[in-house]
Structure formats: C-alpha cells, structure tokens
Design brief:
Shape of chain A: elongated
Number of helices of chain A: 11
Strand order of the largest sheet of chain A: 12-19-14-15-16
Distance between the termini of chain B: 28 Å
Oligomer: heterodimer
Distance between the termini of chain A: 18 Å
Largest sheet of chain B: 5 strands, antiparallel
Order of helices and strands of chain B: HHHEEEEHEEEEEEEEEHHH
Helix content of chain B: 40-55%
CATH architecture of the largest domain in chain B: Up-down Bundle
Strand content of chain B: 15-25%
Largest sheet of chain A: 5 strands, antiparallel
Strand order of the largest sheet of chain B: 5-13-8-9-10
Largest interface: A-B, 79 and 69 residues
Chain lengths: 645, 404
C-alpha cells in the first residue's frame, strides 16, 4: 500500500509539474523570444526483489527549452540584414520623397531661372525682364538652399541615430553581461539544470542587439556567452563589457565614427565597412553610399552652374557699359585642416583651392596630404589616391590648389558638399546684368560689296579691357584685299585672315587670338571694303551675352562634359531612385527570408495553443488517474482496517 | 509540421499590412494620375520624365519668343510699309516735278510738300517700341536713331540687329538698323554709280551684264563730237588722254557697253545716255557708293527750289533712281521680314506638334493606365478582404472553445 501510495504520488507530482509547465507555456504564448518548455520525465529506478524489478513510479529529470541553436542563428542572421536594409530604405526614402515632389525639386526652379535669362536675352533693355531674371535666380538659390537644408536635417538625423544606436548597443551589452552573471549562479547545479527563462531573456537581448548591429556569439562552459561584432571585436566577454563610443571622425570632423573603448583607456576606430548589419550598419552604409553622394551631386550642380554662369557673365557688358562681375557669389571647395599625422595637433597648412574645370568635378570628398616630399590627394570614400607629386595638385578632378603645407599636414577637401548651401546671387541691381557683348561690329558705309560680319562672340577676356568707355585697346579693322583674297587686320592678331568670296560666301567662321573673338564672315566683299569691331557703346538692346548665358542650359558642362545641369539633376534623381528601389527590394526579400526563418524557428520553439490545450487535457487525466490510484490505495487500506475492526 | 500560434497572427498581420501598403500605393497612383509617385517606383522613367519636362520648358520659352518675334516682325512690317508709302508719295511728286512746263512757283510748292514728307519720314524713322526704345537704332536702344533736320540728318545708332531665340539654334533677326534701312542704300544693282558733267545729256543708272562681271573698274565716257565717244579706263588714265578702251557712235538712248579693261571682249556694264551731249562732255562710272534717303530728299528740295536749266533733269533722273533704290531697299527688307515670319510660323506649327509629342512621351513614361490601375485596385481590395475574412475565421479556431 505504501508502494502504491508513493508510486501514485510520483505520478501525481509529475502530472502537476507537466500541468504547471503547460500553463507556463500558455501564459507566455505571446512573449517575444519565449521558447516553449517541456518536462523531461523518466521512470524512477526500479526496486529489485527476488521475483524481479518493481517499478517505483516516475520522476522529473528536468524542464528543458525546445530550442534549436541552428534555427535561432538563422533568424538572427536574417533579422540583422533585414533591419539594415529597412533602416537604409527608411532613410533613403526621405531623399526619394524630397526629389519626388515636382514643385519642390530643382528642375522647375532651374527651368524658371533659364526662362528668366531668356527673357533678358529677348528684351535686354527691359528693367522688368531683368528684375524677373534676378527674382528667378533668387528662387533658384533658395531652392538649392532648401534642398541642402533638408539634406542637412536628414544628415543630422543620421548622426543622432548613430549615437543613439551606439548607446543602445552599450546598454544591451551591459544587460547581456548581467544575465551572464545571473545564469552562472542560477546554473550552479550544472548545465543539465538550465535556467530556461534567463536563457530566453538573454537570447531575446542578443536578438535586440542583433537588430542594432550584426553580432556573433560563442557559448562558454559555464553557460555564459561572448559577443563579437564587426570583424571579431569583442563586445561582451563573459561578464566583461567593452563599450563602443562615438567620436568626431579623424577624416571628417562633421561626422561621427564608431570606436571600441580599450581596457587600458583610449578608443580604436572601427572601419565603417566592418560595421555591418542592423540599424547601425544601415545608417553607416546609407550615410556613405547615398547621402554623401546625393548631397555632393546636388552641390556639384550648384558649383557647375555658379562657375560657368559667372565665367560667361564676365564676358558680357552691363547696362552701364562695364564688364560683368560675379553674378553668383563664387564657390570654392570647402577646406578643413585635419590633425597633423606626426604631431597630432591641428595642421598648420595654408592652402586655398579653386574650381579649374567643372567638368572634372566628382561627387567625392578628398584628403590632401603632404609627407614632406610628395603631395597626395586621396578620395575619402575608397581611399584611392587620385594624385601624387612634388607640387600641389593642379587641375586634378577639376580642382587647383595653391599654398603651403608642412610635413604630415592633412586637409579635408569637399569641393561640392556645401555648395548648395552657399549659393547666392551676388548682384541686386538689375543694371548689373551683363546681357550685351562688350564689342560690336559695323561695316563701313562706303563698302560696295555684299560682305557681312556677324556679331562677334567673346571667348575670353584676353585683350578685352575693363574700362567702360573702351573695351578694346583700339578699334579692330578688317580690310578686304581682293587680289590676295585676305582681310588685313589691324588692332588684333592674327594680322591677316584668308577669305575667298567664291568659296566662303556662305559663311566662314573666324577666330581672332588677341582679343579672343569669334565671328563669321559671309557674302562677297569688294576690294577695300572695311569692317570695324569696336566697343559696344550704349548697346542696351544687345542680348548677345544673355543668349550665351541661356545657351549654358543646354551646354554639357558637367560630369566629364557629358551632362547639362538638368541632366545632372535627373541623373541624381535616377541614382537615388534606383538605390531606394533596390533598398526596398532588398528589404522585402530579406523580410521574406526572415519570415521563413522565423516560421521554421517558431515551428520548433513556438507555443501552439491547441497543442497546449491537448496537453492540458492529457496531464489533467493523468493527474486524475494518479489521484484514483491514491483513492484505490486508500480503499485498500480501509478494507484492511475494517478487517482489523 | 507544427505551427506556433503566434506565427498565425504575425503572418496575417504582416500580410494584411503589406496588402494595405499596395492598396495605398495604387490609390496614390490613381489620385495623382501618375504611375510614378516616387522616383524609386521607376528611376529610369522618372529621370527621363525630368529630361522631357526640361525640353517642354525649352519649348515654352521658344514658343513665347516665337510669339514675340511674330508680333515684332508684323509691327516692323507695318512701320516699313508706312515709310514706303511716304517715299512713294515723294516719288509721285518727283515725277510731277519732272514736267518741264512747271513754273518755279509750282516747284516751290512741291518742295514745301516734300519738306513735310521729310519730317514725316524722320518721325517714322524715330519710332519707339513698347518698352520706349528706338526701333531703328540697332543695339543702342536709348539713342535717338536719327537726329537733325533737312539740313543734315545723322544716324546715331549702331549696326546691331536684335534677335530672338526661336528654336534650339535659330536666332531670328527681328529688327532692322537705321543704317541699313535709310542711310546706306546702294544702287539697285549694288555695284556702281554713274555721274555726268554734261548740261544737255543724261546718263542712266546702268545694268551689270552679269551678277559678278563688274570688278570695280572706273570708266570714263568722253564725247569727241556730238555723235562719237571714247571709253577710257579712268583708274589707269584719269585724264582720259591715252588710248581709249573702245569708241562708238552716239545714238540718244542707245546702250553703250563698257568692256573689262583687261579683256576687251567681255562686257562688264551697260549704260545709256540720252539727250544732246557736246564734244568734250564726260560721263564717269565708278564703283557704287551708297546714298542716304535724307540727303536725297534734301538735294531734291534744294534742286526744286534753286536748280534751273539742264542740270535739273539730271537731278530729277538721279533722284528718281535713288528713290527707287530706297524703295527697293525697303521692299527687300520687308520681304526679308516676311520670309522670317513664314519661318517663325513654321516653327510655331512644329512647336505645337512637338508639344503634343512631349506630352505623349511624358504620358508613356509616367502616365497612369487608369483601366489597369482601377482593376489592380479592385484586385488588391479583394485580396485584402479575403485576408481579413479568413484571418477572422482562423483566429476563431481554438481547442479551448471545446473544453468546458
């Protein structure tokens, strides 16, 4: 009877334990990271008698998690990639949205600007036309600035999120270390008695960490885990935490770089390309892949427009007869001295840069350095050297540098980054728009031939004087000599121009070298016919230079001479669009993988309520049956007592 | 295979979420009428659409300029027409003045009439455009084109020709400078003028025998008697004493051919002389210099008021020639303006077609096919409803419902 009672009791206890575990599973069904638990039950050691072994009931050996290391690792890997792509997508979508708005994009402002220029070309003396050109220029500058400031907001947001993400990572690392400690003490009975819920908690924190940055773990014999990030930088070693920190980058003080704090103090910067996965990985790759490129591409349009427009504007003459000044404030590459490589103190270099060729401009940033012998210009994006030589770079990627540097000096050069912020219309007075050409041509009234010379195009300021009353040192005369079929030139070089009326009558383009003028001669000049090129005095109705300014709209000045300003912008839109689209596709594909991995992992570890309901019934019945056994034992015992009584 | 209960919920929630995103996207397409809501929807098409929009903007500017060019050319044409009318009127008066029976009083009254016409021509030549700039002063919009009066008019503009950009490359000239219009009128054939010193004979404005035959030679015709003449190359022999290039018998009004000095068999110019020349009379033919309308009228007025005798008919003949040249010049400029109007009109028509093409291109790039978008929308709606319904059914299934 005692045997029956005690055996039944083991069954009763076991059923109760199973019921407890089942109800624990049901209660935690919706807890993220919860792994369903199972009671591991075995028969108790049997009792030997002469006739054989009698079972002694059941015993609970342990409560285990139904857990697959492999499937969990797959979920983690899929999750960290998914979060990275999603973060990237959410960030770049802001730029995508910015560019999608046709009223807020650059295109309409650019079109309106050139329309203003054309209005001046069509009616150069009209003050309202000129005012409208100035206003549309202001609007263009404002549009550049507002897009730039939106980019800057996005950039500030990225920097804030990077530092937020790093502090999240540190907090999670601390929690993992704490849980390591708890698990060690909880599992003091040995790894066969797992601290299930603590392990779940730790796994769930590792999963959270993995959403911030891709992390790998190894398990130690005492049940603690080590966590590594990047290319194996330790984040948690058992109960020790190696915190990450953010600091201004040594190659660009305006951006944060991530480093790991060393035990002995000091911080080692982790290269950005090693920090992949999760929010942090997404932010860092977005910042270098998309944001820098897009912002610099916008800046490149601004630099190109300002430089080319100013150059052409300088070749014209305003309403007062003066040569054109800067129409937009001139833009130069942003320069920032970085710490000297040898001394560590700020570089003392004094270097200035100018844009020498807008078609050479790229969307890269550079570091200019000097080792005492050679100057080197290195792209920051991929650390490729684009120039190395004993003199400062001239005409490299569209830039020319002058100044002095000491050995070890480094300078951050950003030719386009802040251009869209700094663009400004330099003139306010409508009279200062240089719409006219500084020179004009006239034919002598005594000419008897039919020769004509077109209005000259000024190619450069060579030989053009700045005095308002005389832009040429002397009038240029061209006199035709029918014997030699040449024009004799005075006041300019070359001294003669060949012109054969019988073959050139349809028009022949001629370029003088000094002053640097181009015009075309056509028709049949007679012997002695003369043409005079002189200062364009009072030429208020001349829109020659305004037309040349308007022609810049269709000039392929950017990206190695392949793109107009508008095309450069549409290329930027297309680039951002493609990146957004592929980020979205990647994110969705990764979501699919994550869903599959999660379903697989959950199919092993997740709670199924129907299953638990069945278990509930099963263990209830076992419990009831074991109770019945005790009842039977009781009846038997009563029977015996009755016999005795 | 087992399935965890939470996965059922998670999967359904994310499926419904995704379907809602699709549905909203289609709705955005429908409400904006554009297939490409964000550049990322179709990066290539949206970049191309931007380029097409730029071309549309280009075209809009050109269309605007074409309109302005048309208006400017039309108003220029009517200005030139008015000038032509004035010159025509003067010419009629000159023809009248040619009547040998007119008394000096009649001539004086004609002169008075012509003085008035002179003022009216000067006024027309100083017309201003809508922005208050002088129409015929070239680039110098602020400078009064012509200043002075009958005693002398000077042109104060320059030779600039105002242009408008009417296509990608074509700058169409829309103005005529005063120099070309009134001040620098070459003789009709554009190459030479003739002059005479005879009181009793008149030399005509001749014709060049071919478009390029006249090489700029200077000729002199010297009458050796009332009926014979010699032709000299006055460039080589200004005093006409050497060997003549040729000689002939004079018949009033008959054509005299002037040979090329270097090749006596080629005729360069033909002129005719009418009247009764006397021995020793000379006529000169020199490379054409130009005349200006104002001094032509001035000389006419002076001639009418003070010239008498035989010089008078040469004056009338010269004036008629010059006026004809001036009117011919204006006609030429009007024809030029007219052909430019035709050109601009053609561009306007092309522009209209191009605009439609661009709109069509834009539509194909980013435009929305409403039929398929609405069908998509309904399909997505159906899917979403199905997902919602089945989810409600699945979530209602639980063994616990059966445990009492």
């Amino acid at each position: 009877m005692a045997g029956l009672l005690s055996i039944s009791l083991t069954g009763l206890n076991a059923a109760q334990a199973a019921l407890n575990t089942t109800s624990h599973n049901i209660s935690n069904a919706s807890v993220t990271g919860y792994t369903r638990q199972q009671v591991v039950q075995g028969t108790a050691d049997p009792k030997f008698t002469g006739v054989g072994f009698f079972g002694q009931g059941t015993e609970i050996s342990t409560v285990k998690r139904v857990y697959s290391q492999f499937l969990t690792a797959q979920v983690l890997a899929a999750d960290t990639s998914q979060v990275q792509y999603e973060t990237y997508y959410n960030q770049i979508k802001q730029v995508d949205n910015l560019l999608s708005d046709t009223t807020a994009g650059l295109s309409p402002a650019l079109e309106e600007f050139f329309r203003g220029v054309q209005q001046v070309a069509a009616d150069p003396s009209s003050i309202p036309s000129r005012q409208s050109m100035l206003s549309s220029s202001e609007a263009l500058a404002t549009r550049f600035q507002s897009m730039q400031s939106r980019f800057q907001e996005i950039r500030d947001g990225v920097e804030t999120q990077i530092s937020q993400s790093v502090s999240d990572i540190n907090a999670l690392a601390k929690k993992i270390a704490d849980l390591n400690l708890k698990i060690v003490s909880a599992q003091s009975a040995g790894p066969n008695v797992p601290a299930n819920d603590l392990l779940d908690q730790r796994d769930s924190i590792v999963a959270d960490l993995n959403k911030q940055i891709k992390a790998t773990t190894t398990t130690n014999s005492d049940g603690t885990i080590n966590v590594f990030i990047g290319s194996g930088q330790p984040l948690v070693m058992g109960q020790d935490v190696y915190s990450l920190s953010t600091a201004a980058s040594t190659t660009d003080p305006t951006r944060l770089s991530v480093g790991v704090e060393l035990a002995g103090g000091g911080v080692v910067t982790i290269p950005e390309n090693l920090l992949s996965g999760g929010t942090l990985g997404g932010l860092l790759s977005y910042r270098s892949d998309s944001l820098d490129t897009a912002q610099n591409a916008l800046g490149r349009i601004a630099v190109g427009l300002v430089t080319e427009f100013n150059a052409q504007h300088a070749l014209g003459q305003d309403l007062d007869g003066e040569l054109g000044g800067n129409y937009f404030t001139a833009l130069t590459p942003a320069m920032q001295n970085l710490p000297n490589l040898t001394t560590g103190a700020a570089s003392t270099a004094s270097v200035s840069a100018s844009i020498s060729d807008v078609s050479g401009l790229t969307t890269d940033d550079y570091v200019l350095s000097y080792d005492g012998t050679n100057y080197a210009l290195t792209r920051t994006s991929d650390s490729v050297s684009v120039y190395s030589g004993t003199t400062l770079p001239a005409g490299v990627d569209g830039m020319t540098f002058t100044g002095t540097m000491s050995a070890g000096d480094r300078i951050l050069v950003q030719p386009t980054r802040y251009a869209a912020r700094d663009i400004q219309v330099a003139i306010q007075d409508t009279r200062l728009i240089a719409a006219a050409s500084p020179v004009t041509v006239s034919k002598s009234t005594t000419n008897s031939g039919t020769g004509t010379i077109s209005q000259p195009t000024v190619n450069s300021l060579t030989g053009i004087l700045s005095s308002a009353s005389a832009h040429l040192a002397s009038d240029i005369t061209l006199t035709f000599n029918s014997t030699t079929n040449q024009f004799t030139v005075t006041g300019a070089l070359p001294a003669t121009i060949a012109y054969d009326p019988s073959s050139n009558a349809a028009g022949s383009s001629v370029t003088l070298t000094n002053p640097d003028l181009t015009f075309s001669i056509s028709g049949r000049p007679a012997n002695g016919d003369t043409f005079t090129i002189s200062t364009n005095v009072g030429g208020t109705k001349d829109g020659t230079n305004a037309n040349a300014l308007y022609a810049l709209q269709s000039a392929k000045d950017l990206i190695g001479g392949t793109a107009t300003f508008g095309y450069a912008y549409s290329q930027m839109v297309s680039d951002v669009g493609t990146k957004t689209s592929s980020a979205k596709i990647n994110s969705e594909a990764q979501q699919g993988l994550l869903d599959q991995a999660t379903a697989a992992q959950q199919s092993v570890s997740g709670v199924n309520l129907d299953e638990e309901a069945a278990n509930l019934l099963r263990y209830q019945q076992i419990y009831q049956a074991a109770s019945k056994c005790i009842g039977v034992a009781n009846t038997l015992f009563q029977d015996i007592l009755n016999i005795m009584g | 295979m087992r399935i965890s209960t939470s996965i059922i919920y998670d999967t359904n929630v994310s499926t419904i979420g995704r379907q809602q995103v699709d549905l909203v996207h289609t709705q955005q397409q429908l409400s904006t009428g554009s297939r490409v809501v964000n550049p990322s929807d179709d990066p290539v098409a949206s970049a191309r659409a931007l380029e097409v929009s730029q071309s549309v903007a280009h075209l809009a500017v050109q269309t605007e300029n074409q309109g302005t060019a048309m208006d400017t050319l039309k108003s220029l044409d009517s200005q030139l027409g008015s000038m032509s009318d004035v010159l025509d009127y003067i010419r009629e008066r000159v023809v009248q003045a040619g009547d040998g029976t007119l008394s000096q009083t009649d001539r004086d009254s004609l002169a008075t009439d012509i003085r008035t016409q002179f003022d009216s021509l000067l006024n027309l030549a100083n017309t201003k455009d809508s922005s208050g700039d002088y129409l015929f002063s070239g680039y110098k919009g602020d400078a009064q084109a012509f200043s002075g009066n009958l005693s002398g008019v000077t042109y104060q503009g320059d030779q600039g020709v105002r242009t408008l950009l009417v296509s990608n490359t074509r700058q169409v000239p829309v103005s005529v400078n005063g120099n070309e219009l009134l001040m620098n009128i070459s003789s009709i054939n554009g190459t030479f003028t003739s002059s005479a010193n005879s009181a009793a004979a008149v030399i005509s404005d001749g014709t060049v025998s071919g478009p390029v035959a006249y090489s700029g030679s200077h000729y002199g015709i010297k009458f050796t008697s009332a009926t014979t003449y010699d032709v000299f190359d006055t460039e080589a022999d200004p005093s006409m004493v050497g060997t003549p290039l040729g000689s002939g018998t004079y018949v009033s009004g008959q054509t005299i051919s002037l040979p090329d000095p270097s090749d006596a068999t080629t005729t360069e110019i033909q002129v005719s002389i009418a009247g009764s020349p006397a021995a020793g009379d000379t006529f000169a033919i020199t490379p054409g210099s130009s005349s200006d309308v104002f001094s032509t009228i001035k000389q006419l007025v002076i001639g009418l008021e003070s010239t008498t005798g035989t010089g008078y008919s040469q004056m009338i003949s010269d004036t008629l020639g010059r006026l004809d040249n001036a009117m011919e010049n204006i006609t030429r400029l009007r024809a030029q303006g007219g052909s430019r109007q035709v050109e601009v009109e053609a561009l306007q028509n092309i522009g209209g077609d191009t605009k439609i093409q661009y709109a069509d291109r834009l539509d194909r790039l980013v435009g929305l096919d409403y039929a398929s978008a609405i069908s998509d929308f309904q399909q997505q709606q159906t899917y979403l409803e199905a997902a919602r319904n089945t989810f409600a059914k699945i979530s209602g299934l639980s063994l616990f419902n059966f445990i009492s």
